[in-house]
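Deliverable D5.2: sample structural annotation.
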Amino acid sequence: MTVTERFQRLPTAAKLLLILTAVLLPIGIALAWVGNNGIRRADAALEGRNQDRSRAAAGAIESLIARNALALRIAANGTLATGPAGACDRMRRSLTIAPAIAQSFELEGVDGKPICAAGNIGDTGELPLVAPGDIRVRISPNGNAVAIRVGVIDGMATAVVGVNELRAAALGAGSKIDALVVQDGDDELRLVGPPADPDLRLRISRWPIGNGNLVARVGVTHQRITTLDRLMLLLPLLMWIAAAVITWLLVSRLLIRPLKRLENGVLAYRPGEGELELPAKLGPSQEIRELRHAFARTIARIEESERETTSALEGQRRLVREVHHRVKNNLQVIASLLNIHGRSASTPEAQAAYAGISRRVGALSIVHRNHFAEMEENRGISLRPLVTELGAELRASAPEAARRVTIDLDIDTLHTTQDVAVAVAFLITEIVEYAMLRAGHEPVEISLRRTSELTGRLSLSSPVLVPEEGQEAEKIQFERIVAGLAKQLRSPLERKLGRYSVDLPVFPPA
């Protein structure tokens, strides 16, 4: 079975769904591809924005540390160059004029021993020694600030930047961050967070700060396209699916189901067994309701036409029945007239001639009477009653010398047409009459058997039916007549010792 044949055998709703799919699916796939690319670009944009936020926060802390380190170096160089006496006061005055610079510091000698201090910066003994021009950034020993140590000529300077300053710098960069930790090896200084929502997913990024001495770990909310956003982007594809399903449902409920109910109503109708009953509710379709009315009008016209045809056929059958009845009566009148004239004939030859004609007219009358029964039963002429009645008629019309003849019948119930019945009746009449007139005391056997579904075999047996040499004119005339009747049956006459047989067409068994 080809694809076209399979498609044609599908229900209409399935065909419509396949057609909508074939038309709209490429558009839906293209829109889904565009939507998917949009989702990817949106995710990449969100990821880039998160990176920018993290970079800005780390850069703000890096900038704050760099400004403090630069200011501390400049102030320490100028202060220690004039000697250690009053160094911290001179350095404080120098740092005061610098904006957003830590005011807590300590000056140390080359060996790391404190010279003087301003404010509380905690224990600096654990901080490494730095050479002139070098800068080291560490988390302060007390773990609450970032310590900056710069090396200058004849000493070092150490300052701390507190948590508040670092947090203000990170948040002041315009970055919305959810977590910020400054890490120094195993030591950590938490500036922001952690977030209050434990289920909040954070994207953590690491940024080196303070010349690579520290690492800023910045956490921002992991923002991605939500399910609702994806549904909005995939809305064209969802609309295609919804359109296909809704169209299929509408066609199935408003078109296919009403038509199916209408079809079942039409198929359930049986002419002559009742009126046509069609469903009253067929949905909102005006066309289907009009189709229902059209079916009802058509069936009404067909029933009216059938009634008229049946009435005309019945009249025709009565007419044909009357014609056959009259033909049968006329043939019987003719047979009666022949019998009357035969009895009043002056010579035996004339009487025999009248009797022979009367027997043949009687045979034809019997065929017409059985043809009338054929019209009643509509199965063809039944040969069994025809041959039985014909045998009785031949014995009744036989001359006195042949009244002793016996006719034995072995007849199956077979049916045939009128033309075949006429030829069979004449053939039996000719052979039986010949046997009665030649040897009235010899019996005659008539056999009719079905040989196949469409054929039967008629056989007539009598001792008088023996081939003779030097046949007289009467026997030659008889042979010519029976051979001609056999030709009317479209079958050759088979002659054997004491038996004549011929095949004839019959109707199949009921």
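Annotation notes: The first strand starts at residue 105 and ends at 108. The first helix runs from residue 3 to 8.
The annotation will be released with the project's public dataset once the embargo ends.
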